[in-house]
Amino acid sequence: MRDESLAFLRRLLEAPSPSGYERPAQDVVRDWAGSFADEVRTDVHGNVIAAVNPSGRPRIMLAGHCDQIGLMVQHIDDDGYLYVNQIGGHDITVLIGQNVVVWTKNGPVSGVMARKPIHLMKDDEEKKPPKIHDLWVDIGAANKQEALEAVEIGDPITWSLGMRTLRNDLAASPAFDDKAGVYVVMEALRLLTEERPTAAVFAVSTVQEEIGLRGAVTSTFAVEPQVGIAVDVTFATDHPGADKKVSGDVSLNKGPAIHRGPNMNPVVVSRLIAAAKEKAIPYQLVGSARATGTDANVMQISRGGVATGLVSVPNRYMHSPVETVSLRDMQHAAELLAAFILKVEPDAEFIP
Asked: Is-above-0.90 flag for pTM?
């Protein structure tokens, strides 16, 4: 991964983007894409759409969702503690004891996610998993009035953001789901600027995937692609407790995952595999037996239908503050997309 590309990834991961509040991260995407794309625009929904050779044929859309799971300030009690609701799905147990940030109009406010200490719990409380309303955020306010001077109802909250590098080209951070995908589609577009494809290529940083694939619905309708590839994360099964019989055999540092199944166009899948083999790009196969919970789902059925593929970055500990991926897999995913697109002829046929 080039130094400039790694710097983009770090800035992206440091920018908050809970669904409905993606603008800081989208500003990072827009600035980066503006340094190489032929055109960059942001639609009314907040999707950032960057294009190379926008008048080419066919029209190919790459989508990675910028939004991350988060929380929202729902209530402030008389003692100044914040009670929250979820933006996207959390494992409540991993929220406890985390450093968090409330993103207010006046800047970030630090806090901690807390619950009653284990010493004070009754037996039945200790044994039951907590509900979201059993937790609170402590920003250090003395009372409700002081808290309201710092935050407002509806302010978004995330875990403390930032990336840590691990051994063997691995990295851990909140929001690799799916800023890994945003990195891949924008890096693929950057690689394509050096080759000038005959296709029109639109890399889209979509919004609100975590609350219903919403940005992919509107951006796919607007772009009108003939071919669409979503880039998301998928469950790595190379850690304790993972069941490969259920989720497949997927490891970090063995390449991006190419999905097969009814949500994917078989011609797109075959061409992705062929491109990987030709360029000696490592890849893994994942079977997806139904419509996936990714942007590929809605891309496929936009307008009269889109020939859709799904490429994923293996991810350990999804929807946690320590999501772990391989930087090597991410770069290989971008190279795979670029290789695939460069082989697509203007009159390519994708009817199964």
From this structure: yes
